[in-house]
Every structure is written in C-alpha cells, then in structure tokens.
Write a sequence for this structure.
C-alpha cells in the first residue's frame, strides 16, 4: 500500500520544526543582511576616501586653473584694448605657473590677439569656443591636439562679462602630461581606472586609454543627478554590461568630476557575503537533519520493527518472538507498546488454536453425518432395486426406478459434501456430472439409443442450493429421456444439458431434447403430471421458475438461479 510522504512521522516532525525555527531564521537573515549592507556601505565609503586622496594633487591643479582664470579675467577688463600689456600679463602667468602651457583671452569673435604667445590666433574651430558660444559658463574641455599649443591638453575656460554683456573668455591650456599623477591607493583592492570627466561626460584624463575609459563609465549616467552632484558611491553597469563600483568626487561642482572604477567586491556578492547569508540557512538545515535523525533513531526505527512484527503475525498468525525492542534501547513508551502487542498475540494465538480445534471437531462430525446419510440413502436405493427386480409390472418398475434415481441423486449430493474440503461450498459441475451420468445410464433403454451432450461450467453452490438443483436435474433429464422423439431427418434422438454462468452471482440450468415420434413408445407429456409438479417445486426452492421454449425441432427447459452470498464468496 502506497503511503503519502507527507503522512510520515519524520516528515511531519521536520515540517513542524521548520515552522518553529522559521522566525528565528528570518531574524537571523535580516540581521545578517543588515551587516552585509553595512559592510557594503563601509567599503564604498573607503573607496570614496581613496578616490578623494588619489585626486588631491589633480584637484588642486584644476582649482588653481579656474581661480587663476577668474583673476585674469578681472585684470584683463581694463587693459583688453592694450594688446601688449594684455599679452605681458598672460606671459607673466605662464612664467609663474609652469604647469600651464598657454594662456589666452579669446574675444567673442573667436580671434585672440592677447595671449602668452603674443601672436594673433584664430580659434573659431576649437571645441571650447563652440561650447562657450552656445553657453558661456565656466567649463573644461579636452583636445588631442590644440590649435595653438599643438599638444594634448585640457582647456580651462572662464567667460568674461561686462555690464551683463559677454566679451569673450580666458582659456588656460593644461597639458595632460602635467596633470597626470601616479595615485597611491591604500588597501588590498586597487581601482581599475581613475577617470576625470567634465559636465557633458567627456573624458578629460584617465589612468588608461581614453577610449577604454569611455566604455568603463556607467552606461546610463545623468551628470545632473544627485549621484554626481555630491560625493557618492554606487554600483552600475558599464557600456559592455560589466558591473563595477563607482566612486564620484566633484572637483569643481557641476563642471569637473573624478570617477574611480572599482571591481565589484561588494560583500553582498563576495564569498563573505554569501557565506554570511548561507550560514543561518545552513544552521537551519543542520537543525532539521539532526531532528530527523533523532526522531528516526529514537522512534521511527523502533516503530518499523514493531510494524514488521505485526505484519508477520497478520500474515501467518504464528507466535512472534517477544521483547525484540528491549535490546535496542527503545524508549519506554514504545517498549510498553510491544509488551501490549505480545500479550495480545499470545491471547489471539491461544484463542485461534481453540477455535481451530472446535471447527475441526465440528467439520469431522458434519462430514460423518453426510457420510452416514449417504450410506442410508444408498441402502434405501439398494432396497428399491431389489423391489424393482421382484416386480413384474413394467409401470411399477419404471416408477420405482425414478424413485431410485431421486434417492441416488440425494446420496450423490451427500457424498460430494463428505469429500469436499469446504462444507460451505460445493462445485456444481462435478456434482451434476455424477448425477446425470447415473440418471442417463438408468433411464435410457439401450446404450447408444440417444446422443447425450453436456456443457457444464464451473459453478460453486451452497449446500442449500445443491440439493434442489440435483433433484431438479434428475427430474428434468428423466422427463427429457422419457419424452424425447426421433428427428425428422432420421438421426438419433438427442439431449443437451447445460449449466452456464450468466453473471458474477447468477447461472442458468437448461435441458433440451429433440422432438418427433417417441422413442420409448410413450404418449405426449401430461401438462399437470407429477414430474412437472416436482420440477416447479425444486425450481421454487432455488428461488426461480422454470421456463419452457418449444420449437419445431426441440423442447427446452431453463431455470435461472441466483447464487447465494456464501457460494459467491
């Protein structure tokens, strides 16, 4: 018999323990998750501090450039018409600030006649001029080859206004080579890149190749968002879909930013983070496993031994060895269950033996009764046979033979009951074959006079049905032999006897004989004769009525029998 796994004791104990430990597990997971997030925040703060420290010298240089551009813009206003004085001012700035390679005052027309090179220059094609014309505000641009300096430079641009009117801007060229410092990072994790960008996202400076640096920046970035307006650390995907941790440090707020790119060492994704989260789950699983094995060792295995013992007893009803669990150190409660079962087995075994003895004695007595009845009926049949031999009247002999056949039929029933193994059931096929063979041999005038065929299936009857069926078969076959006729085609007369199952608890008995001139010289059957009355009486005892079907060639009598419950079982 299949057992649902959810109905097992071990599974139910584990399920209940899981529910009991679930709140503790959830609290532990929550606390662990909080610790992991705090560690992630601390890590990002450490990255931000290292970024700020690494960009300190570069930040100072860029701040110096913007401050100088503002000062120069104010100093140039009164002397902007004096080209010589204006150029000398810018030349003095370059001499005092050797990190810068070029200083220029570019008019709104795009032509500079005031610069540290003291030569007119047309910068209308410069990106800084185009951007300043579109939106005159402080900015920082970069170019691989400056129009005047012919170097890879970063350009600091500071607009100059007078009375709200835009006059031009001061441009300071800072060579990338002078602004690139070798940063020193403390800690075991080193950044992948340190990138300086402007407000439009243009890469100004990088530790690696500029094109590579461009792809390492966050794929989706809004430089006007809060992520870039303040010191911040966050996780994002680059243009290639790789996850990195970014630390943003505003150098000039809203103008220039330093972005460091770190490998994703977030504790949430690291081995430490995974182990920290997995530890409560592991402890929960270990608790369930320990609980299951404890229940299995203390309860389930002993119950299985007791179950096997019960099954052996249920299959054999034999005495079972007592005290199997006593040596297995089973709990007291289970040992007491076994002791109770052992006492029950002993009582049932004793009572079963007594019942079997009583049943055997009753079967022996009942079989002896059937044997004595059979002997008495055979004795009566023998006496009738003696009377038949002494009688000189044919009608008397025929009547006595019919009585003798009925008595021998009853004797056959009791003989079968005597020899059967189960007195409650009796096989009808063997019984009818014995009775009908005897009736045919007695009733037919000569051997070979008629063709007799039997088609009898295996049907089990109770003794209450076996007796009236045997008498019914004797009477119907005797009548069929008595009134069978010669067929018109001249063949031998025939009789067909059948017993077939019509359902699980029903069967049909039938006797059919040929029509024609009477073989025995008898007259037609009398409708209300003794034989007909006996047939109806025996059929009534079987709970049925006989049905007669007549055709041009034969007579057929059928009786439908409902088998008793004892016979069906």
């Amino acid at each position: 018999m299949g057992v649902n796994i959810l109905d097992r004791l071990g599974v139910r104990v584990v399920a209940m323990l899981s529910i009991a430990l679930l709140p503790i597990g959830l609290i532990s997971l929550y606390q662990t998750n909080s610790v992991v997030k705090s560690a992630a925040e601390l890590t990002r703060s450490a990255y931000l501090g290292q970024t700020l420290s690494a960009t300190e010298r570069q930040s100072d240089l860029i701040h110096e450039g913007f401050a100088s551009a503002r000062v120069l813009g104010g100093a140039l206003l009164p002397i902007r018409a004096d080209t010589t004085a204006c150029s000398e001012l810018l030349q003095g700035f370059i001499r005092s600030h050797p990190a810068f390679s070029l200083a220029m005052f570019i008019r709104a027309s795009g032509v500079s006649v005031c610069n540290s090179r003291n030569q007119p220059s047309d910068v209308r094609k410069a990106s800084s001029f185009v951007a300043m014309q579109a939106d005159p505000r402080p900015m920082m641009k970069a170019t691989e080859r400056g129009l005047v300096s012919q170097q890879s430079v970063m350009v600091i641009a500071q607009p100059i206004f007078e009375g709200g009117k835009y006059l031009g801007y001061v441009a300071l060229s800072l060579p990338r080579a002078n602004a690139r410092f070798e940063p020193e990072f403390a800690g075991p994790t080193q950044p992948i890149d340190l990138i300086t960008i402007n407000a439009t996202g243009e890469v100004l400076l990088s530790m690696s190749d500029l094109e590579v640096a461009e792809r390492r920046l966050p794929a989706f970035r809004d430089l006007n968002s809060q992520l870039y307006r303040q010191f911040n650390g966050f996780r994002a995907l680059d243009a290639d879909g790789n996850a990195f941790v970014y630390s943003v440090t505003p150098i000039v707020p809203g103008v220039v930013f330093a972005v460091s790119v770190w490998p994703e060492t977030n504790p949430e994704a690291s081995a430490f983070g995974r182990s920290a989260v997995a530890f409560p789950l592991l402890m929960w699983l270990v608790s369930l496993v320990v609980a299951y094995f404890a229940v299995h060792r203390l309860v389930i295995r002993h119950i299985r031994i007791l179950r096997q013992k019960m099954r052996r007893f249920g299959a054999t009803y034999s005495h079972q060895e007592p005290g199997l669990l006593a040596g297995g150190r089973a709990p007291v409660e289970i040992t007491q269950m076994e002791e109770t079962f052992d006492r029950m087995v002993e009582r049932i075994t004793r009572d079963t033996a007594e019942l079997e003895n009583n049943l055997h004695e009753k079967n022996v007595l009942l079989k002896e009764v059937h044997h004595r009845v059979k002997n008495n009926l055979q004795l009566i049949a023998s006496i009738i046979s003696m009377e038949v031999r002494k009688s000189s009247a044919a009608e008397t002999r025929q009547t006595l033979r019919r009585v003798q056949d009925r008595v021998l039929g009853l004797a056959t029933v009791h003989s079968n009951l005597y020899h059967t193994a189960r007195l409650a059931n009796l096989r009808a096929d063997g019984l009818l074959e014995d009775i009908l063979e005897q009736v045919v041999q007695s009733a037919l005038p000569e051997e070979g006079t008629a063709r007799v065929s039997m088609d009898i299936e295996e049907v089990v009857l109770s003794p209450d049905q076996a007796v009236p069926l045997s008498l019914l078969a004797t009477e119907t076959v005797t009548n069929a032999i008595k009134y069978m006729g010669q067929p018109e085609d001249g063949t031998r007369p025939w009789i067909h006897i059948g017993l077939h199952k019509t359902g699980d608890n029903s069967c049909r008995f039938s006797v059919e004989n040929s029509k024609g001139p009477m073989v025995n010289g008898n007259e037609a059957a009398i409708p209300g004769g003794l034989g007909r009355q006996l047939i109806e009486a025996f059929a009534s005892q079987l709970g049925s009525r006989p049905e007669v079907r007549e055709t041009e060639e034969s007579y057929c009598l059928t009786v439908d029998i409902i088998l008793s419950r004892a016979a069906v079982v």
The CA atoms of residues 550 and 556 lie 6 Å apart. The chain has 14 helices and 19 strands.
